[in-house]
Design a protein that fits this description.
With 321 residues, the protein is mainly beta. Helices cover 14% and strands 48% of the residues.
């Protein structure tokens, strides 16, 4: 009596098949077995197995057929390369497992051309993935350009692409694309996205002449592609200001174009309002900074000499923060 133990890898899990039988029974299991070699095959895993390159028939023992099917012959080729596996190489591998190949009928081709079942990925597809990512995460971004290495990749068809942000500035987004594949190491590709923001900003509703006091009739909110931060989001930020220059209709108002309308001016006296619950206290202070409505400025309490931070809420009127 002989004991045979084969170890094979199937779907990345180690399967150990132990057969204990008399030699006569083992020979009868192989008898009538037909292995027909293919001319061409595609593989999906890291290794080429016997069932990849051949049809295996004629044996009624399903466990033995499974064992033969999962015998590894060689490593799979890296796409887009191919590899040839010969009939003699398959026979040699079977002999290593103490299989009597003389009792097996071999037919079909003398060699099989093996290719990896892959999908070609190029920079065009990667840019599409980036655009989808930005559309979902940053609805206010308008992409100006995407910089990514021009290359072709051949990946297994169950690949996954993850996008991670490395850094973001006013107009640039720096990304890393991580490409994962089963049985293969991850690949990383760096990409840079140049963008503008589309936001609602204050624009000139009509021509505004130099030195004109800006009123609500002069401005409106409109969606514009924006770079930088030198613009206004609210009417209140520009109303009452004076134009430093002629401003044409449709122009985005920027800080250098206007003289701000300071409701609180440095050195002038202001009324400080302090409220807590039902308590309201009014004090007299002196502004240490200029400020528009909504600005937080430093105010000196005239009676105590203490400097407090206050929010501008009206002309010469502030409230304690």
């Amino acid at each position: 009596m002989k004991c045979y133990e084969w170890s094979v890898i199937s779907n990345h899990k180690k399967i150990i098949l132990s057969f204990t039988a008399i030699l006569l029974f083992f020979q009868s299991s192989i008898a009538g077995l037909n292995i027909k070699i293919k001319k061409f095959c595609k593989v999906k895993n890291e290794y080429v197995t016997l069932s990849d390159i051949a049809f295996i028939k004629g044996n009624e023992d399903p466990e033995f057929i499974e064992f033969l099917s999962n015998i590894r012959l060689t490593k799979a080729p890296e796409p887009p390369d191919t590899k040839i596996v010969t009939r003699s190489e398959a026979i040699k591998k079977l002999k290593k497992y103490h299989i009597d190949t003389n009792s097996i009928k071999f037919s079909g081709a003398q060699k099989c051309l093996v290719a990896f079942d892959s999908e070609k990925i190029d920079s065009k597809l990667l840019k599409k993935k980036i655009r989808q990512y930005i559309k979902q995460k940053y609805s206010d971004f308008k992409i100006i350009a995407i910089s990514i290495p021009e290359k072709e990749l051949y990946l297994s068809k169950n690949y996954k692409i993850k996008i991670k942000e490395r850094n973001k500035t006013k107009n640039y987004l720096y990304l890393t694309l991580i490409i994962d594949q089963d049985s293969f190491s991850s690949q990383k590709i760096q990409a840079t996205v140049k963008f503008d923001r589309i936001v609602k900003v204050v624009v000139a509703k009509r021509d505004i002449p130099k030195n004109k006091l800006i009123t609500i009739e002069d401005v409106q909110l409109a969606e514009k592609e924006i770079r930088g931060r030198d613009y206004f989001h609210k009417y209140e930020e520009v109303l009452g200001s004076r134009a430093k220059r002629d401003i044409k209709e449709g122009t985005i108002l920027k800080k250098y174009m206007i003289v701000p309308s300071y409701k609180v001016k440095k050195g002038r006296k202001v009324k400080i309002i302090y409220t807590k619950g039902n308590i309201r206290i009014e004090l007299l202070g002196r502004a240490l900074q200029n400020g528009k409505i909504g600005d937080v400025v430093k105010i000196k309490n005239i009676s105590s000499g203490k400097v407090v931070r206050c929010k501008v809420i009206g002309k010469d009127l502030v409230t304690v923060q």
